[in-house]
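Readers outside the structure-tokenisation community will struggle with the description of the input data as it stands. For illustration, here is how one protein appears when written out as sequence plus structure tokens:
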Amino acid sequence: MAEERSLEQEWRQFKALDIAPTAPDVQFNEMRKAFYAGAASALGLMSGTERRGSNAEQRRLIYLALLYEVERYLASANARILQGRNPN
């Protein structure tokens, strides 16, 4: 079974991999707020899945649709970054 991790542990890993050590405090603070806002939003969507799905298979399909939406955005944002464009 995979090791359970806290949001704080996930944040620390994200920070280490994706924020330059020389980033100004304002960038660090904004990225941390965005990270936790995204986590809160995802948790809200996932808990909403429990109310929207009448059975396990329906809930699984809703969850997979949400996951696909995230993956699609990340792929698009990464492609834009590689092209030197704004990821939004």
